[in-house]
Amino acid sequence: MKYSVIIILLIFMSCKNETAKQEVADANNEKEQSVTQITNSDFDLKVYDYDGLEPLINKKDEKVHVVNFWATWCAPCVKELPYFERINKDYKDRDVEVLLVSLDFPRNYDTKLKPFIKKHDLKSKVVAFDDTDQNRWIPAINENWTGALPATIIYKGDKRQFYEKSFTQEELENELKQFLK
Fold this sequence. Notes:
Order of helices and strands: HEEHEHEHEHEEH
Shape: globular
Structural class: alpha/beta
Helix content: 40-55%
Largest sheet: 7 strands, mixed
Strand content: 15-25%
Number of helices: 6
Distance between the termini: 76 Å
Number of strands: 7
Radius of gyration: 22 Å
């Protein structure tokens, strides 16, 4: 009888431990699901939901981060993309990192977004953003953002500025220089 009780306790504890392990595994899988990678022969395109994107737009390091929200269907976005590419090229050695976050529709990744990236030979890091809960992620990115494109965040450490507008090359560089001081 004594051994039966011990065996039952061991089985119960083992099951409880397996449940805890499964809960941890489930939580890790949820995190992994926040990033999807679409691979083809040309390049990999990572697709993020807000939980996956959030660490990319809130890095705590010594670099200046320029994050541009854009889409191929947004004419002002497409017009200003070369300015971000130039920033990426000209300021890379000054610890400036450019991230282009495409808000193109998922159904257009293969037909529009990837061909656009290839055609324009974009050198900045490009990711796609796919999260349907706008009521959550728009105010999380910036409480005053209406959701209009283009939109840009420039930040370094605790200094952060949000812009809901399109830039000229000169305007973008002037804003960037405020973070390089």
